[in-house]
C-alpha cells in the first residue's frame, strides 16, 4: 500500500544535480525539432517536479528547465531558419505533424511572437512552432523574448503541478491506508459476529434435538400405555 510513497521518497533521495539535469535534458530534447515526438519531456518534468519539496529545489528546477526549454526552442528556430519550408517535406514532419506544422505557420503569420508564447502550452505545436518561426523569417529579436517568457511560465505551471501531485499522492495513499485498516477491522468484526451467531444456532439445534429431561422421562410412560 506504500508503493507511491516509497517511489516518491526514492526520487527525492536521488542526487539533485543528476535529477535536475535529466529533467532539463528531456525538456531540451522535446523542444528541439523532431525530438518532441520521441522524448517524454513533459512527463519527465512532472516526475522530477514531485521532488521539489523545498524552495531551493523548486527554484533550481524552475531555472534549469526554463533555460533548457528556451535553448531547445532556439535550436529549433535555427534549424527552421537554415532549412526553411523544406522541413515540412521531411519524413518526420509528414508522419507526425504535417497538420500541426501548417497550423503553427498560419498562427505565426497572424499572431507573430504571441503564437510562440502560447504554443509553448500546446503539445506537438510546442515542438514545431520554433522551427516554423525560423522558417517564416520571424525576427529572432522577437522570437527570443516570446519563447523565454513561454518557457518561464510553462515550467512554473508544470513544476507546481508536479510538486502538488506528489504531495497529493502521499495524502491520498495515507488516507487509503487508514481507510483500508478501518474496513479490514469492520470486516473482521462482522465475520466474528456471524460466526458467533452460527455457533449459537448450532448449539440450540443440538439442544432441541436432544429434548428436555422431563420429555425424556415421560416417553417410557407413553410407550407403556
UniProtKB/TrEMBL annotation:
<feature type="transmembrane region" description="Helical">
    <location>
        <begin position="143"/>
        <end position="166"/>
    </location>
</feature>
<keyword id="KW-0472">Membrane</keyword>
<dbReference type="Pfam" id="PF09335">
    <property type="entry name" value="VTT_dom"/>
</dbReference>
<dbReference type="InterPro" id="IPR032818">
    <property type="entry name" value="DedA-like"/>
</dbReference>
<comment type="similarity">
    <text>Belongs to the DedA family.</text>
</comment>
<keyword id="KW-1133">Transmembrane helix</keyword>
<feature type="transmembrane region" description="Helical">
    <location>
        <begin position="178"/>
        <end position="196"/>
    </location>
</feature>
<feature type="transmembrane region" description="Helical">
    <location>
        <begin position="59"/>
        <end position="79"/>
    </location>
</feature>
<feature type="domain" description="VTT">
    <location>
        <begin position="54"/>
        <end position="163"/>
    </location>
</feature>
<dbReference type="InterPro" id="IPR032816">
    <property type="entry name" value="VTT_dom"/>
</dbReference>
<feature type="transmembrane region" description="Helical">
    <location>
        <begin position="19"/>
        <end position="39"/>
    </location>
</feature>
<keyword id="KW-0812">Transmembrane</keyword>
<keyword id="KW-1003">Cell membrane</keyword>
<protein>
    <submittedName>
        <fullName>DedA family protein</fullName>
    </submittedName>
</protein>
Amino acid at each position: 500500500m506504500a508503493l507511491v510513497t516509497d517511489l516518491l521518497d526514492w526520487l527525492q533521495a536521488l542526487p539533485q544535480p543528476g535529477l535536475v539535469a535529466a529533467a532539463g535534458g528531456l525538456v531540451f530534447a522535446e523542444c528541439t525539432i523532431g525530438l518532441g515526438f520521441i522524448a517524454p519531456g513533459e512527463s519527465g518534468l512532472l516526475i522530477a517536479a514531485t521532488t521539489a519539496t523545498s524552495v531551493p529545489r523548486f527554484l533550481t528546477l524552475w531555472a534549469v528547465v526554463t533555460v533548457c526549454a528556451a535553448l531547445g526552442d532556439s535550436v529549433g528556430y535555427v534549424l527552421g531558419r537554415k532549412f526553411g519550408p523544406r522541413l515540412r517535406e521531411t519524413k518526420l514532419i509528414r508522419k507526425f505533424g504535417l497538420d500541426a506544422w501548417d497550423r503553427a505557420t498560419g498562427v505565426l503569420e497572424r499572431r507573430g511572437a504571441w503564437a510562440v508564447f502560447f504554443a509553448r502550452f500546446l503539445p506537438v505545436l510546442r515542438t514545431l512552432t520554433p522551427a516554423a518561426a525560423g522558417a517564416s523569417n520571424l525576427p529572432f529579436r522577437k522570437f527570443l523574448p516570446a519563447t523565454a517568457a513561454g518557457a518561464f511560465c510553462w515550467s512554473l505551471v508544470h513544476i507546481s503541478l508536479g510538486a502538488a501531485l506528489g504531495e497529493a499522492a502521499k495524502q491520498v495513499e495515507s488516507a487509503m491506508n487508514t481507510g483500508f485498516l478501518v474496513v479490514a477491522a469492520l470486516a473482521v468484526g462482522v465475520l466474528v459476529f456471524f460466526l458467533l451467531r452460527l455457533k449459537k444456532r448450532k448449539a440450540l439445534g443440538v439442544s432441541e434435538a436432544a429434548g428436555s429431561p422431563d420429555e425424556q422421562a415421560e416417553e417410557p410412560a407413553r410407550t407403556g400405555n
